Q: What sequence folds into this?
């Protein structure tokens, strides 16, 4: 039997959170089943295309109003089942919460902790972390990051 190869950049961690997505023209409320250091996949029907920017508001439950993680994201994949969102930026407190939660919920926490050590893809600008430094140069990403 051939062993499947995982081509993912980062490990997925199973977490059930409510998600509110704010695109320029559309807003959506749904749930996320898992998250990785680079982003998440949201099941459902969306009128969005690859490259669309949004504010991602993750909440511990649909009834709880406080955001636990607030980030700027970009649609990286569109399927019949939903959309994949790549994190572009988030405030340091959101990133710290993401790290802590992923370590606590991970099946293999040592593997996830190694991924956090790979800081070559992160850039800190004030109290905002940019996941891939070239996003810091995009005006619209910077403007959205300023309202986090």
A:
């Amino acid at each position: 039997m051939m062993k499947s190869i995982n081509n993912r950049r980062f490990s997925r961690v199973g977490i059930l959170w409510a998600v509110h997505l704010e695109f320029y023209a559309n807003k959506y409320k749904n749930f996320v089943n898992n998250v990785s250091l680079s982003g998440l996949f949201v099941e459902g029907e969306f009128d969005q295309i690859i490259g669309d920017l949004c504010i991602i508001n993750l909440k511990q439950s649909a009834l709880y109003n406080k955001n636990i993680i607030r980030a700027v994201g970009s649609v990286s994949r569109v399927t019949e089942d939903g959309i994949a969102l790549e994190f572009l930026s988030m405030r340091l407190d959101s990133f710290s919460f993401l790290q802590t939660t992923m370590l606590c919920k991970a099946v293999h926490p040592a593997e996830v902790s190694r991924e956090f050590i790979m800081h070559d893809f992160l850039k800190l600008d004030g109290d905002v972390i940019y996941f891939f430094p070239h996003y810091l140069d995009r005006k619209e990403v910077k403007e959205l990051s300023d309202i986090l």
